[in-house]
Amino acid sequence: MAEQVAASRMAAEVAFSGDQPVPSLIQAAIAKARTSMAVPQVTAIAHALFGAIGVTEELDLQLLTRRLHEWRVSEGSETWWNGIVGQAFLAQPNATACEFVRHVISSQTA
User: Fold this and answer.
1) pLDDT attached to residue 1
2) For helices 97-109 and 78-90, angle between their N-to-C axes, nearest 10 degrees
3) SS (H, E, C) 37-55
4) Among residues 35, 65, 81, 86, which one has the fewest Cβ atoms lying within 10 Å of its Cβ?
5) What percent of the chain has pLDDT over 70?
6) How far apart are the first and last CA of the chain?
7) How would you class 105 by CB atoms within 10 Å of its CB: exposed for 0-12, middle for 13-18, buried for 19 or more?
8) 10 Å Cβ neighbour count for 11?
9) Res 58: pLDDT
10) Burial degree of 24 (CB within 10 A; 0-12, 13-18, 19+)
11) Is residue 11 a contact partner of residue 30, using CB atoms and an 8 Å limit?
């Protein structure tokens, strides 16, 4: 659970690390896809830790879980955003995945 949250946070921080007030489409797509992919795993682990009491009204976990699942599909789920990233990657046929990510990160900080 901690790894999923840390990866999501890192993706969001990278997307907003540049001088621009709004990240580029690819950086936003990577951040949105990564955070959306974490939601099912994080919420499942959280509910397991609380012994499924998280679905009851007595614990606010159910409120947070609902919000996370709503935000996950808001403005497109991870499938849609991963499609945008995939198209951008395939548009650079000679680039490896590492080179693509380095280019995305360096274009934000430059």
Assistant:
1) 93
2) 100
3) HHHHHHHHHHHHHCCCHHH
4) 86
5) 91
6) 32
7) middle
8) 19
9) 72
10) middle
11) yes
C-beta of residue 56 within 8 angstroms of C-beta of residue 50: no
Single out the residue of 6, 26, 40 nearest to residue 106, CA to CA: 26
pLDDT tens digits, one per residue of 9-41: 999 998 888 788 888 899 999 999 999 999 999
Tokens of 102: 């380095």
Size of the chain in residues:
110
Q: Are 105 and 14 in contact (CB under 8 A)?
A: yes
Instruction: Report the chain's C-alpha Rg in angstroms.
Output: 16
More confident residue, 70 or 107: 70
Q: Which two tokens stand for residue 90?
A: 């395939």
Side chain identity, residue 32: K
pLDDT at 20: 82
Q: Which tokens go with 9?
A: 């946070």
